[in-house]
């Protein structure tokens, strides 16, 4: 009944976006829809070279195929899982250097997505700048609870990167949500518009990757943008063999229109206020009822701490997945486990090596649900919490050797 599996590609498009879709120009090369899209991306990012892709991971695949390879290291506040997979697939290593506050789910702090600048300096000295082709900051930090990164942190990271000649890229999936957090929480930004903040944020970067399925309200799409001509040439060469001609990438002209319109709509501060407030509203309702949640509220999702919520279920009986099942059975709410089913490994004796956290993510699609839906979600979670002792742990009955959480079958203990 309520689908909180992901906020990716699940946004409701506006009437303007649908109208734009009707005007999509499907010329193979040089479509006017591309130039409208290119212009919007250039305006927000200040980056002249814009390359459309069918979604975010396609942009990553191109970038890391060119820059990656054995013996290389990429550093980030936290790489998203597809980003990390593309880095590792190239033979390189992805290293997360998240600030200390970001590692503690229940301790509130304004910018828990920040990169640890001291750790970055140390890492560069240890591995050598020549072995680090790129540093990437993910805004907001999706894998770390949708927590924002401060402008000061981006400036500090850029300074270190410049000293060592390492390009800085932004994983910009939630740039508008991050810019709005900066406006609310960082000194000196209260009177600036979200667009001005976003433009400043991108001004410190050499390039970016983006999934338009997030902060562009599109159901599909993404892009790469950058300043450096030679890198862009290599990217476009790969684009032609994997995605398509440089003026459409993996997209139809109509998708380019929807993205161009969505990128401007997402910076509307009334929209962002409603969005950020609804996540906070749900988080606060749960905190008031004693439900263990990650704090403070992030930009796109609420995270339940399943280890504490179901403290009677041991981690090798997957408390996160047990809670996902309970929310679905009790209230028809779909969520996703981010814990030992997703990240757990086995030791030599086939005993589970658990993930550090057992979380359940409730990702809120953009412009889809109203306050009444959110109230219903809170009521269901609180009812499940009050009857939590009846919930049983789970055993895996079938699993694939790789990324098992997509297809595993489980039964109650
Ligand atoms: C979704 C996401 C991606 C990948 O984008 P897709 O469009 O799903 O391929 C990359 N980085 C972050 C932070 C994301 O949230």
Would you write up a description of this structure?
The strands form five sheets. The chain has a seven-stranded mixed beta sheet with strand order 2-8-7-6-5-3-4, sandwiched between helices. It has 15 helices and 16 strands. By secondary structure, the chain is of the alpha/beta class. The chain is globular and about 60 Å long. It has two domains: 13-265, Aspartate Aminotransferase, domain 2 (3-Layer(aba) Sandwich); 269-412, Aspartate Aminotransferase, domain 1. Strand 3, helix 4 and strand 4 form a beta-alpha-beta unit. It starts with a strand and ends with a strand. The structure holds pyridoxal-5'-phosphate. Residues 8, 55-57, 80, 82-83, 138, 142, 171, 173, 211, 213-214, 222 line the site of pyridoxal-5'-phosphate (PLP).
Key terms:
413 residues; alpha/beta; Aspartate Aminotransferase, domain 2; Aspartate Aminotransferase, domain 1; 7-stranded mixed β-sheet; 42% helix; globular; binds pyridoxal-5'-phosphate
In brief, what are we looking at here?
The protein is of the alpha/beta class and 413 residues long.
Could you say which structural class the secondary elements and strand pairing correspond to? alpha/beta
Main beta sheet strand tally, sense and closure? 7 strands, mixed
- Give the termini separation: 27 Å
CATH class of the largest domain, anyone?
Alpha Beta
Q: Per CATH, which architecture of the largest domain?
A: 3-Layer(aba) Sandwich
Helix content: 40-55%
**CATH homologous superfamily placement of the largest domain:** Type I PLP-dependent aspartate aminotransferase-like (Major domain)
């Amino acid at each position: 009944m309520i689908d909180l599996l992901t906020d990716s590609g699940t946004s409701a498009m506006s009437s303007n976006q649908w109208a734009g879709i009707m005007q999509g120009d499907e010329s193979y090369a040089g479509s006017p829809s591309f130039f409208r899209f290119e212009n919007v991306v250039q305006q927000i990012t200040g980056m002249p070279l814009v390359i459309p892709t069918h979604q975010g991971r396609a942009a990553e695949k191109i970038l890391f195929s060119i820059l990656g390879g054995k013996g290389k290291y990429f550093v980030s506040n936290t790489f998203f899982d597809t980003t990390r997979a593309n880095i590792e697939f190239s033979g390189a290593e992805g290293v997360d250097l998240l600030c200390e506050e970001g590692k503690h789910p229940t301790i509130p702090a304004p910018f828990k997505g920040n990169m640890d600048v001291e750790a970055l300096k140390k890492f560069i000295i240890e591995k050598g700048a020549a072995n680090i082709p790129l540093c990437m900051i993910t805004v907001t930090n999706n894998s770390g609870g949708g927590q924002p990164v401060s402008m000061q942190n981006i400036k500090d990271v850029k300074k270190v990167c410049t000293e060592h000649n390492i390009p800085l890229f932004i994983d910009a999936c939630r740039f508008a949500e991050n810019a709005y957090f900066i406006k609310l929480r960082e000194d000196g930004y209260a009177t600036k518009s979200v667009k001005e903040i976003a433009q400043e944020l991108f001004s410190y970067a050499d390039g970016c990757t983006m999934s338009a399925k997030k902060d562009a309200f599109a159901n599909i799409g993404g892009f790469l943008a950058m300043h450096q001509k030679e890198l862009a040439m290599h990217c476009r060469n790969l684009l032609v063999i994997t995605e398509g001609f440089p003026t459409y990438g993996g997209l139809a002209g109509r998708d380019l229109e929807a993205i161009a319109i969505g990128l401007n709509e997402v910076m509307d501060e009334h929209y962002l206020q409603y969005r950020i407030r609804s996540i906070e509203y749900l988080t606060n309702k749960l905190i008031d009822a004693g439900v263990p949640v990650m704090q403070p509220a992030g930009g796109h999702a609420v995270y339940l701490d399943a280890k504490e919520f179901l403290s009677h279920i041991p981690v090798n009986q997957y408390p996160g997945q047990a809670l996902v099942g309970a929310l679905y059975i009790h209230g028809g709410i779909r969520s996703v486990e981010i814990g030992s089913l997703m990240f757990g490994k086995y030791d030599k004796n086939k005993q589970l090596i658990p993930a550090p956290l057992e979380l359940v993510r409730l990702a809120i699609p953009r412009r889809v649900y109203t306050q009444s839906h959110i109230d219903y979600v809170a009521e269901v979670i609180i009812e499940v919490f009050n009857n939590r002792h009846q919930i049983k742990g789970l055993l895996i009955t079938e699993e694939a050797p790789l990324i098992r959480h997509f297809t595993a079958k489980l039964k109650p203990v």
